[in-house]
Here is the input.
Amino acid sequence: MTRYFFRRLLLTIPVLFFVSLIVFSLIALIPGDPARIMLGEEASPEALAVLRKQMGLDRPLIVRYAIWMGHVLRGDLGRSVRDGRPVLDTLLLKIPVTAELAVTSLLVAWVIAIPAGVLAAWKRRTVIDYGATTVALAGISIPNFWLGIMLIYLLAVNARLLPPSGYVEPWVDLGRNLKLMVMPSIVLGTGLAALVMRLLRSSMIEVLSSDYIRTARAKGLADQVLLVRHAMKNAMIPVATIMGLQLGGLLGGAVITESIFAVPGVGRLAIESILTRDYPMVQGVVLFAALAVVLANLLVDVTYAFLDPRIRLEEPTG
Amino acid sequence: MKRLLALVVIAVLAFTAISTAAPRRGGTLRVGLNADPPNMDPHQSTAAVDRQVFQNLYDKLVDINENLEIVPMLATSWTITEGGRVYTFKLRPNVVFHDGTPFNAEAVKANFDRMLDRSFGSPRFSEVNLVTKVEVVDPLTVRITLEKPYSPFLAVLSDRAGMMVSPAAAQRLGKGLAREPVGTGPYRFVEKRPQERIVLERFDRHWDRGAGNVQQIVYRPFTDENARLANLRAGELDIIDQVAPAEIPKLKTDPVLRLFARSGLGWQGMWIQVQSGIFSNKALRQALNAAIDRRTLVQVVFGETADPANGPFPPGMFTYSIPANSRIPERNLDLARQKLREGGQPNGFAFTLKVTPGRVPQQVAQVIQSMAGEVGIRVNIEIVEFGALLSQLDAHRFEASLLGWSGRPDPDGNIYGFFVTGGGLNNSAYSNPRVDALLDAARILTTPDQRRRAYTEVMNVLNDDLPYLFLWWPKEYKVLGPKLQGFVHISDGMMRFRNVWLNP
Here is the structure.
C-alpha cells in the first residue's frame, strides 16, 4: 500500500511539470504585449518600458520560464502586477474561503442526492423515480448564474431571510459566516447533487438486482435494513470516487458562483486576475487549481485502492 | 390644552425637519464598486476604479465642482504668469498627512519629483512632463514652471496627478505605498483585503473640520451588476457605481432607491484608419457617415442612457455649444450615394469593423451594418479580445473599430492626443497640420471664448475629414439607498464623500 502511494505521488510530478509548461506558454502566446494590455489605453511609453523590464519581457521565453520555475520551486510565485502583493500571500488568503465553500457545497449535495438517489432506485419506474430524475436533469441544466440571481432576489431582496452576498470569516462572526454560505452552497451543491443522484440511482439499481440482495430479501430482511446496511455501502463506492473528483470541479463552478455572491475565494481571484490581466496571479491560480485536481485524483486513487485491493494488485510490480 | 398640544406637535415636527436636514455624524457608509481597486497610490494607479477610493483618501491641489469649474482644495489660490508658463500656488496652512508629516511647498515639490522620476515609471509622467521646474518660494508658496503654456494644467491637477502623497511615507515605502497609502484626505486608510473590501476611517486631524461626517467608509467590489443592485435593494449598501441600462426605467419609479443621472464626460463611436486601405479615400468615409442614423442607433441600443453625438465634447463641457459638436447630423442616403460615386465606388464597398466582445458593442455594430447595407456598404463584424484590439489599434492594423474614451473634465483631454499628428492615442493615424496648429493653439489660449473658437475650427475640419465617427455620449449614473444624504453628483462619476451623512 505504501509503495503504491509513493508511486502514485511520484507520477504527479511530471503532470505538474507539464501543467506549468502549458500555463507559462499560454500566457506568452496571448496576442498583444502583456505590459501594454495591463496598463491599458492610457499607458505612457515610460511606464511601459518600466513594466516590461519588471516583468522580464525583454528576455527570451525559455530564460523567463527557467527563472519563473526556479522561483516557484522555492515557493515564490512572484508578485501581483496590480497590487504588488506576493501571489502566494493572496492565494493563501483565498484558499480557505473556497475550501469552506467546497465543503458546505458537498454537504448540500449529499443531503439532497443520497436520499433522492436511493428512493429513486428503490421506487424504480414510479412517479417518485421520474420526479427525482426530472429534478436532477433540471439541476444539471440550470446555469449557476441564473440560479444565483434568483436566490438573491427571492431569499435576500424580497424575503430578507439571508444577506445577499459577501463574506465574513467564521472566527469573526460564525452565525453570519454560515448565513452567507447558504446561497452559494445551494447553487454549487445542487449542480453536484444532480450528478451524484443520477449516479447513485444507477449504481443502486445494479446492486439491488444482485444475488446477495435477493438472498437477503428472501431471508425476510426489513426494507430499511436491506437498503442502508447492505445495498448502500456497495452502491456508494463509485459515487465516492466521483465526489472526490468533483472536488476539483467545484473550483471551476466556484468562478461564477463566487462572483455573483461576492465571495472572495480562489474562483473570484481567477476571474478578476484574468479580467485585469494580472499574469503572475493568473499563473499562480492555474497552478494551484492544477495542484488541487491532481491531489484530489491522488486521494481518490488511494482511497479506491484501499476500498478495493484488486486495484493496487493490478499495478505491475518491480 | 388643545393649543398647547398643537404647539408641541408643531415644535416636534419642526425639530425633526431640522434634524433630517442637518448633517449627522457617525455611521458606516457602504459603497458598491464595479471592480476591485488594485492600487492605492495615485502616482502608480492605472485602473479607473482606483480613483473612486482616492477621492476620500487624498486631497488634490485643486478640485472640480458640479459645473466642471476648477475650485481650490490644497491650493487656496493661484496666479498664472509669463503667458501661461508659470503657475504660483498659495497652499492651505495647517494641513497634515495621515502619518503626521506636515503638508507644505516641500511636499508638493517631492510629489512632482516622484511623478517625474523616470526610473519610478509613473503613469502620471505624460500628464506632467511639461513641468520643467518646481520651486519652493516659501513654506506655503510653490512655483511650477512649464516648458510651454498648457491651459488644461489645472484640470490635470484636479485628478490623480494633483493628489498629494506623504513624502515621508513615499520615501519609506517606495512602491509599497500602493498597499499603505498616506494622503491628507478626510479619511485615512485602515485595511484592504483583495476582492473583498477596503476600509477607510475618519481622519480627525483633517484641515476641514466640517468634512467627514461618516465615521467609516467600506468599499466592496461587485463585478456582477445584478448582484451589485441586489445588495443595494437588500439594504446592504448605501450607494452603487454604474447600473445596467435595462434597470434604469424601473429605478426611476422605485419608491426607496434614488437614481442620480448626469451627462458623462466621455465619447463613443468608430475609429477609422485613414492612412491606408479603403478608408484612405475621404469620400468613402463621408458616405459611411451619411448612412448612419445616430438618433435611431441610440434609441435602439441605449434608450435614454445615452445621447446621440457628433463630437468629443458631451453636454456639460463648456465647448459643447460649438455647433459642429452639438448639432447631430440627419441621416442622408442621397448624400451617401453621391459620396460613393465621388469615391469611385458607386455600388458600395466592404470593410471590416472590429469590436470588443460584449452585448452592447455587437448590437451597435449590427445596427451600423444594417444602416450601411442600405447604400451597398457591406460591414463585416469581427470580434477581437480587448487586449488584442488595443495592440492592433496601436499598430493601425484595422479598417474600422468601435472604441471610445472615458473622458476628462477639460476639453483638451478629450481631443488632443487623439487627433494630433503622432499622438499617443491617435489610432486612426490621422495627420493634418492645420488641426495640429489649432490643437496646440487651444492649449495656450486661456479664456473659454478663445478656446471655443479654436475648437470650432478643429471640429469643422474633423467633421469633414472624419478620422473618427462620434456616435453617442454615455450618461453617468449612481443609485443611492434611503440613508445616504448630501451626495453631490459630478459628471466625472467620482464619488466624493467628504460632506455626505447617513440618516439612521
